[in-house]
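Input record (one chain):
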Amino acid sequence: MKKSALQLARADYQPKLPIALQGAVKVKEGEPTQSVDNQEEIKKLFPNTYGMPLVEFVPAEKQENKKMNVGVILSGGQAPGGHNVITGLFDTIKKLNPENKLYGFILGPGGLVDHNYMELTADIVNEYRNTGGFDMIGSGRTKLEKVDQFEKGYEIIRELDIQAVVIIGGDDSNTNACVLAEYYAAKNYGVQVIGCPKTIDGDLKNEQIETSFGFDTACKTYSELIGNIERDCNSARKYWHFIKVMGRSASHIALECALQTQPNICLVSEEVEAKNMSLDDVVEYIAEAVANRAADGNYFGTVIIPEGVIEFIPAIKKLIAQLNDVLAMPEAKGLDRSELIDFAKSHLTEDNLKVFNSLPTGVARQLALDRDPHGNVQVSLIETEKLLSTMVSVKIEKWKKEGKYKGKFATQHHFFGYEGRCAAPSNFDADYCYALGASAAQLIANGKTGYMAIVKNTTAPANEWKAGGVPITMMMNMEKRNGEMKPVIRKALVELDGAPFKEFVKMRDVWARETAFVYPGPIQYWGPSEVCDRTTMTLALEQQK
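The corresponding structure, as predicted from the sequence alone:
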């Protein structure tokens, strides 16, 4: 594999580790835990892995050179730093015992079920240190939910003498990890399952998980691109740029990018819902900012839009909820696309049908037909940035006829998604992911299962970070999926009373009228620590550092 000059230089970077993970380790256990909600239901579903204590690693004088083979799976969408989780895991199990082996299951959880794997040797692992992407072993979206999958996985686990499987993924993947851990524990198979928190969307976090890996790098990558657009915008001074960023279930990316780049407008889905805004309210909000800047002679600007904002508009959210139920009905199975639309409309309430019929035809069809494997609307396919700019344009034209607006309104559109998922990890993500991998290895060595590796105190220097594990059941609640109530990890939404959002609110009226753009530039890997090792503004504000 030919490497770029950056890759060659980055290969020599040695990620920093918390003091507790630098040598021998012992476990310090906390109090028993319970799930965030629906305690009785979750306890009943996970009797063997519920109520376990929080775990923190502390330095020890010596540690048993434990013999253990480990399997690792990359699950779901890519996120910067995944390779460093694997290198941290590899280095730590080899340090515990050089005879230990690490097996990578190819193309996600499906590799475990289909017995598609490879041994990850030093030669292979060294090729991927501090690199972006998941291409070492690939990723996939197979859901581990069924007994026959668990049993097929156990066949290869037993054949390879694997003691534990590490699943690197988001909330759905780690929910599957929890189910798998419970199944193997109930069967007394002696197989441990450990999760690692991955998602660039930033919605896998709570009191124990300060941030999910990849969020830092992805936001810095998108912010560089947004800053470049803002500079172009401020140079040409003739376009309004509507920029959609990833974030189906939460607006963490949009908010972080806004804090970094100071656009004229940034929508926050959670606020749209809290204020009970209609689609027209959202359009009016943007159009007023456009008109105010036009009054100052500024016919240009930037708007950041989280991809999932349409799902947070209460009337549309209510419509989607009923569509989910209708499309999960047995009678809907086997219908073709045109029949499905008519079937859905015939089962909608009067209010929901009115909202459905008010939407542009393309958007209505996508809401009714396009679903991901989890039964969710595929909002990334809905060109929300074009929908909103078109509706703003219609409103501006109306105001022109009424004499309320003079001048031009021209637009450009962008969607930043794949651009950030496989970027070379920032120093923060390189360090954080390596520490997560090392934590996962120590959870295995200390006999834990059904845990997620965690690293805390992440706004401090890396050697002061605190590593450990949290029972996955602690993060779970019951939610409706595909028409059924299922145990899932609760997603973390933007908190409207949280420090990051409050900081944004404090400044957004100024940004809306003035040209206050900030151009962050590319991620820096070498240089002053305050430039190269800085965390996201979200994390700094949340921890007030």
